[in-house]
Amino acid sequence: MKITHKKFYLNNHPLIKKDITILRDKKTNPEVFRAAVKRISLILAVEISKEYHLTKIDVETPLEKTTGYLLKQNVVLVPVLRAGLGMVSGFLEVIPDAKVGHIGLQRNEETLEPVEYYYKTPKDIHNARVILLDPMLATGGSSSEALKYLKKRGVKNCVFACLVAAPEGIKKIANDHPDVSIFCAALDKQLNERGYILPGLGDAGDRTFGTL
Q1: Residue from 206, 207, 208, 211 carrying the catalytic annotation
Q2: Which among 58, 66, 111, 194 is annotated as catalytic?
Q3: What is the CATH classification number for the domain harbouring 17?
Q4: Do 108 and 115 touch, CB atoms closer than 8 A?
Q5: Known catalytic residue at 203
Q6: Could you confirm whether 97 is annotated as catalytic?
Q7: Which of the following is catalytic: 24, 107, 153, 176?
Q8: Residue 79 domain-assigned (yes or no)
Q9: What is the full DSSP assignment across 3-56?
Q10: Is 37 exposed, middle or buried, given 0-12, 13-18 or 19+ CB atoms closer than 10 A?
């Protein structure tokens, strides 16, 4: 399936490719898995934030006054529970003053449709740069629904970050949310009959938290 979404960005950094290999290996234990997720998330955070606008401030060094910079807008990270939690620490390493909200969506294993069970975000999220975090972009149903929830609450500036994506999920986001950029660490070939990514890395939540 050809990727036509103009706002899809695949990061081909060598260190990401190395860590994706670690994530794919079924023998990787949860501790090593979490560390690899954090490293990839850190690189994605650098990529996403490089276009952020800055405000100039005065700062005094031990020698003289000079110009410094602060982020012009607040940043809010919104992990999709629970697998998205594994990406938060890497993003906070790069953007330590970011706020964190949460969206709880679980997939109905029969219909593959998302079902909401939790939503909590900062009150000023409508004025922030929002980064939606979900490791696996499979069918795209949960991610698309999460983006709808955010937009209903006034979010105007949002990007989506994932570890692994299938073409079907990218197409879903492109159709439902053509304004949303997708930042991805690996593009896989397809979904299987159960809606899981191939070759993928299994269930990211179970592998992160050791609940296999």
Answers
A1: 206
A2: 111
A3: 3.40.50.2020
A4: yes
A5: yes
A6: no
A7: 107
A8: yes
A9: ---TTEEE---HHHHHHHHHHH-TT--HHHHHHHHHHHHHHHHHHHHTT--EEE
A10: buried
**Length of the chain in terms of residues written:** 212
Q: Provide the token pair at 188.
A: 């896989």
Give a yes or no: residue 183 inside a domain.
yes
Q: What's the number of domains the chain is made of?
A: 1
Average confidence score pLDDT of the chain: 93
Q: Is 179 an annotated catalytic residue?
A: no
In a domain, 36, yes or no: yes
Per the annotation, the verdict on 124 as an active-site residue is no
User: pTM of the entire structure?
Assistant: 0.91
Given the residues 203, 207, 208, 211, the one annotated as active site: 203
Structure-token match 């330590």, residue found: 96
Tens of pLDDT, residues 27-43: 999 999 999 999 999 99
- The answer to whether position 122 is within a domain reads yes
